[in-house]
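Let us walk through a complete example step by step. Step one is to write down the protein sequence. Step two is to encode the small molecule, manganese (II) ion, as a SMILES string so that its atoms and bonds are unambiguous. Step three, shown after the inputs, is the structure prediction itself.
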Amino acid sequence: MSALPPSVFATSDAHGHLTELTAALHEAGLVDREARWSGGDARLWVLGDLLDRGPDGLGVIRLVRRLADEAAADGGQVRTVLGNHEVIALGMRRFGDAEVVHRGVARTFSSIWSRNGGLASDQAGLDDELVDWLSGLPAIARDGDHLLMHSDTTGYLQWGDTVDDINETVRSLLASDDPVAWFNVLVGLGRRHELGGADGPAAARMLLDTLGGARIVHGHSIIGDYFGEPFDSYDEPRLYADGLALDIDGGIYEGGPCLVAHLGG
Ligand SMILES: [Mn+2]
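Step three: the predicted structure of the complex.
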Protein backbone atom coordinates (compact mmCIF):
# COMPACT_ATOMS: atom_id res chain seq x y z
CA MET A 1 0.00 0.00 0.00
CA SER A 2 1.39 3.36 -0.98
CA ALA A 3 1.11 5.97 1.74
CA LEU A 4 1.46 8.94 -0.61
CA PRO A 5 -0.89 9.86 -3.45
CA PRO A 6 0.83 10.12 -6.84
CA SER A 7 2.00 13.56 -7.89
CA VAL A 8 0.04 15.30 -10.62
CA PHE A 9 1.65 17.67 -13.13
CA ALA A 10 0.52 19.62 -16.17
CA THR A 11 2.24 21.38 -19.05
CA SER A 12 0.89 23.04 -22.17
CA ASP A 13 1.55 24.79 -25.47
CA ALA A 14 4.94 23.29 -26.26
CA HIS A 15 4.41 24.48 -29.86
CA GLY A 16 7.22 22.42 -31.34
CA HIS A 17 9.80 23.39 -28.73
CA LEU A 18 11.06 19.89 -28.01
CA THR A 19 14.33 20.94 -26.36
CA GLU A 20 12.62 23.32 -23.93
CA LEU A 21 9.88 20.83 -23.08
CA THR A 22 12.37 18.03 -22.46
CA ALA A 23 14.47 20.28 -20.20
CA ALA A 24 11.42 21.39 -18.22
CA LEU A 25 10.23 17.81 -17.73
CA HIS A 26 13.72 16.87 -16.58
CA GLU A 27 13.75 19.75 -14.11
CA ALA A 28 10.41 18.53 -12.75
CA GLY A 29 11.87 15.06 -12.22
CA LEU A 30 9.61 13.44 -14.80
CA VAL A 31 12.28 12.39 -17.33
CA ASP A 32 15.93 11.41 -17.00
CA ARG A 33 18.88 12.76 -18.97
CA GLU A 34 17.96 10.51 -21.89
CA ALA A 35 14.40 11.90 -21.81
CA ARG A 36 13.03 8.56 -20.53
CA TRP A 37 10.14 8.61 -18.05
CA SER A 38 11.52 8.82 -14.53
CA GLY A 39 8.34 10.02 -12.82
CA GLY A 40 7.30 6.65 -11.42
CA ASP A 41 3.60 6.72 -10.62
CA ALA A 42 3.20 10.45 -11.28
CA ARG A 43 0.55 11.70 -13.68
CA LEU A 44 1.33 14.30 -16.34
CA TRP A 45 -1.31 16.16 -18.32
CA VAL A 46 -0.31 17.78 -21.62
CA LEU A 47 -2.86 20.45 -22.43
CA GLY A 48 -2.62 20.71 -26.21
CA ASP A 49 -0.98 22.84 -28.89
CA LEU A 50 1.90 20.42 -29.34
CA LEU A 51 2.76 21.61 -32.83
CA ASP A 52 3.07 24.71 -35.05
CA ARG A 53 5.14 27.87 -34.37
CA GLY A 54 8.25 25.96 -33.19
CA PRO A 55 10.78 23.77 -34.99
CA ASP A 56 9.71 20.22 -34.13
CA GLY A 57 6.05 19.60 -33.44
CA LEU A 58 6.34 16.01 -34.58
CA GLY A 59 9.16 15.52 -32.10
CA VAL A 60 6.98 16.87 -29.29
CA ILE A 61 4.19 14.48 -30.28
CA ARG A 62 6.60 11.54 -30.45
CA LEU A 63 7.95 12.45 -27.00
CA VAL A 64 4.58 12.63 -25.26
CA ARG A 65 3.40 9.41 -26.90
CA ARG A 66 6.55 7.55 -25.91
CA LEU A 67 6.34 8.94 -22.37
CA ALA A 68 2.73 7.77 -22.17
CA ASP A 69 3.88 4.22 -22.88
CA GLU A 70 6.83 4.42 -20.51
CA ALA A 71 4.78 5.98 -17.71
CA ALA A 72 2.03 3.38 -18.08
CA ALA A 73 4.62 0.62 -17.74
CA ASP A 74 5.84 2.31 -14.55
CA GLY A 75 2.42 2.82 -12.94
CA GLY A 76 2.25 6.46 -14.01
CA GLN A 77 0.27 8.26 -16.67
CA VAL A 78 0.82 10.81 -19.44
CA ARG A 79 -2.33 12.08 -21.13
CA THR A 80 -2.91 14.75 -23.74
CA VAL A 81 -5.95 16.94 -24.37
CA LEU A 82 -6.87 18.62 -27.64
CA GLY A 83 -5.72 22.15 -28.46
CA ASN A 84 -6.93 24.41 -31.24
CA HIS A 85 -3.67 23.82 -33.14
CA GLU A 86 -4.35 20.09 -33.30
CA VAL A 87 -7.72 20.91 -34.89
CA ILE A 88 -6.05 23.34 -37.31
CA ALA A 89 -3.53 20.66 -38.36
CA LEU A 90 -6.22 18.00 -38.82
CA GLY A 91 -8.51 20.42 -40.68
CA MET A 92 -5.64 21.57 -42.90
CA ARG A 93 -4.93 17.98 -43.88
CA ARG A 94 -8.57 17.17 -44.46
CA PHE A 95 -9.89 20.33 -46.13
CA GLY A 96 -6.78 22.34 -47.12
CA ASP A 97 -7.65 25.04 -49.64
CA ALA A 98 -11.33 24.17 -49.90
CA GLU A 99 -13.38 27.33 -49.45
CA VAL A 100 -15.96 26.98 -46.72
CA VAL A 101 -18.71 29.45 -45.97
CA HIS A 102 -18.80 29.68 -42.20
CA ARG A 103 -21.25 32.11 -40.62
CA GLY A 104 -21.45 33.98 -43.90
CA VAL A 105 -17.69 34.31 -44.37
CA ALA A 106 -15.62 32.36 -46.91
CA ARG A 107 -12.71 30.75 -45.11
CA THR A 108 -10.11 28.04 -45.67
CA PHE A 109 -8.20 25.91 -43.22
CA SER A 110 -5.00 26.59 -45.15
CA SER A 111 -5.19 30.35 -44.53
CA ILE A 112 -5.88 29.81 -40.82
CA TRP A 113 -3.03 27.31 -40.67
CA SER A 114 -0.52 29.66 -42.31
CA ARG A 115 -1.64 32.67 -40.25
CA ASN A 116 -1.17 30.67 -37.04
CA GLY A 117 2.36 29.44 -37.46
CA GLY A 118 1.66 26.21 -39.31
CA LEU A 119 4.76 24.29 -40.35
CA ALA A 120 4.91 22.21 -43.54
CA SER A 121 7.38 19.91 -41.79
CA ASP A 122 4.83 19.13 -39.08
CA GLN A 123 2.07 18.68 -41.61
CA ALA A 124 4.15 16.28 -43.69
CA GLY A 125 4.27 13.85 -40.78
CA LEU A 126 0.53 13.58 -40.31
CA ASP A 127 0.03 10.00 -41.46
CA ASP A 128 -3.17 8.04 -40.90
CA GLU A 129 -1.99 6.60 -37.61
CA LEU A 130 -1.11 10.01 -36.19
CA VAL A 131 -4.37 11.48 -37.48
CA ASP A 132 -6.25 8.75 -35.61
CA TRP A 133 -4.37 9.55 -32.42
CA LEU A 134 -4.93 13.30 -32.68
CA SER A 135 -8.59 12.85 -33.60
CA GLY A 136 -9.16 10.69 -30.55
CA LEU A 137 -7.77 13.14 -28.00
CA PRO A 138 -10.24 14.26 -25.34
CA ALA A 139 -11.14 17.96 -25.36
CA ILE A 140 -11.37 18.09 -21.58
CA ALA A 141 -10.53 15.91 -18.58
CA ARG A 142 -10.85 15.80 -14.83
CA ASP A 143 -8.24 14.48 -12.43
CA GLY A 144 -9.41 14.73 -8.83
CA ASP A 145 -10.00 18.39 -8.05
CA HIS A 146 -8.49 19.56 -11.34
CA LEU A 147 -10.49 20.29 -14.46
CA LEU A 148 -8.03 20.21 -17.35
CA MET A 149 -8.60 21.95 -20.69
CA HIS A 150 -6.65 23.77 -23.36
CA SER A 151 -8.63 26.99 -23.70
CA ASP A 152 -9.84 29.34 -20.99
CA THR A 153 -13.41 29.49 -22.20
CA THR A 154 -16.90 28.39 -21.24
CA GLY A 155 -17.32 27.40 -24.90
CA TYR A 156 -16.81 23.75 -23.99
CA LEU A 157 -20.33 23.71 -22.54
CA GLN A 158 -21.83 24.08 -26.05
CA TRP A 159 -20.76 20.44 -26.58
CA GLY A 160 -22.23 18.94 -23.43
CA ASP A 161 -22.66 19.30 -19.70
CA THR A 162 -20.43 16.44 -18.60
CA VAL A 163 -16.78 15.75 -19.40
CA ASP A 164 -17.75 12.56 -21.24
CA ASP A 165 -20.50 14.25 -23.27
CA ILE A 166 -18.18 17.07 -24.35
CA ASN A 167 -15.49 14.62 -25.45
CA GLU A 168 -18.00 12.45 -27.30
CA THR A 169 -19.46 15.45 -29.12
CA VAL A 170 -16.09 16.90 -30.16
CA ARG A 171 -14.87 13.49 -31.34
CA SER A 172 -17.97 13.01 -33.44
CA LEU A 173 -17.72 16.51 -34.95
CA LEU A 174 -14.09 15.86 -35.91
CA ALA A 175 -15.13 12.54 -37.44
CA SER A 176 -17.59 14.29 -39.73
CA ASP A 177 -17.00 15.40 -43.31
CA ASP A 178 -18.68 18.74 -42.69
CA PRO A 179 -16.09 21.53 -42.66
CA VAL A 180 -18.57 23.91 -41.03
CA ALA A 181 -18.79 21.55 -38.04
CA TRP A 182 -15.00 21.57 -37.91
CA PHE A 183 -14.88 25.37 -38.00
CA ASN A 184 -17.33 25.49 -35.12
CA VAL A 185 -14.98 23.32 -33.04
CA LEU A 186 -12.07 25.54 -33.99
CA VAL A 187 -13.94 28.72 -33.11
CA GLY A 188 -14.94 27.23 -29.74
CA LEU A 189 -11.38 26.18 -28.89
CA GLY A 190 -10.03 29.51 -30.13
CA ARG A 191 -11.92 31.49 -27.49
CA ARG A 192 -9.94 32.79 -24.54
CA HIS A 193 -9.74 35.14 -21.56
CA GLU A 194 -13.23 34.21 -20.34
CA LEU A 195 -12.14 33.35 -16.79
CA GLY A 196 -10.49 36.70 -16.11
CA GLY A 197 -11.81 40.13 -15.24
CA ALA A 198 -14.79 40.94 -13.07
CA ASP A 199 -16.98 38.18 -14.53
CA GLY A 200 -14.20 35.57 -14.59
CA PRO A 201 -14.75 33.92 -11.22
CA ALA A 202 -18.47 33.37 -11.97
CA ALA A 203 -17.61 31.82 -15.34
CA ALA A 204 -15.00 29.56 -13.74
CA ARG A 205 -17.48 28.63 -11.00
CA MET A 206 -20.09 27.70 -13.60
CA LEU A 207 -17.64 25.43 -15.42
CA LEU A 208 -16.61 23.75 -12.17
CA ASP A 209 -20.18 23.39 -10.90
CA THR A 210 -21.20 21.81 -14.20
CA LEU A 211 -18.21 19.58 -14.91
CA GLY A 212 -16.74 18.96 -11.47
CA GLY A 213 -13.45 19.82 -9.86
CA ALA A 214 -12.29 22.69 -7.68
CA ARG A 215 -9.82 24.38 -10.03
CA ILE A 216 -9.49 24.83 -13.80
CA VAL A 217 -6.03 24.26 -15.26
CA HIS A 218 -5.56 25.61 -18.79
CA GLY A 219 -3.05 26.75 -21.41
CA HIS A 220 -3.71 28.71 -24.63
CA SER A 221 -3.46 32.20 -23.14
CA ILE A 222 0.13 33.25 -22.52
CA ILE A 223 0.59 34.63 -19.01
CA GLY A 224 2.64 37.59 -20.23
CA ASP A 225 0.04 38.59 -22.82
CA TYR A 226 -2.89 38.03 -20.53
CA PHE A 227 -1.56 39.84 -17.49
CA GLY A 228 0.53 42.42 -19.33
CA GLU A 229 3.93 41.32 -18.05
CA PRO A 230 7.26 40.75 -19.83
CA PHE A 231 7.65 37.13 -20.94
CA ASP A 232 10.89 36.76 -18.95
CA SER A 233 9.44 38.13 -15.70
CA TYR A 234 7.68 35.02 -14.39
CA ASP A 235 8.60 31.38 -13.90
CA GLU A 236 5.47 29.93 -12.33
CA PRO A 237 1.89 29.26 -13.41
CA ARG A 238 -0.57 32.04 -12.64
CA LEU A 239 -3.44 31.44 -10.24
CA TYR A 240 -6.33 33.86 -10.77
CA ALA A 241 -10.14 34.08 -10.82
CA ASP A 242 -10.27 33.93 -7.02
CA GLY A 243 -8.08 30.84 -7.13
CA LEU A 244 -10.45 28.98 -9.44
CA ALA A 245 -8.20 29.04 -12.52
CA LEU A 246 -4.53 28.29 -13.15
CA ASP A 247 -2.91 29.49 -16.39
CA ILE A 248 0.12 27.33 -17.24
CA ASP A 249 1.02 28.77 -20.67
CA GLY A 250 4.35 30.51 -20.14
CA GLY A 251 4.61 31.46 -23.82
CA ILE A 252 7.52 29.36 -25.04
CA TYR A 253 7.49 30.72 -28.59
CA GLU A 254 7.56 34.29 -27.27
CA GLY A 255 10.64 33.56 -25.17
CA GLY A 256 8.72 32.74 -22.01
CA PRO A 257 9.34 29.69 -19.83
CA CYS A 258 8.10 26.16 -20.51
CA LEU A 259 6.09 25.61 -17.34
CA VAL A 260 5.47 22.23 -15.71
CA ALA A 261 2.91 22.87 -13.01
CA HIS A 262 2.95 20.64 -9.94
CA LEU A 263 -0.74 20.39 -9.14
CA GLY A 264 -0.52 18.25 -6.05
CA GLY A 265 0.46 14.95 -4.49
MN1 LIG B 1 -4.12 27.39 -28.23
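Step four is interpretation. DSSP finds ten helices and eleven strands in the chain.
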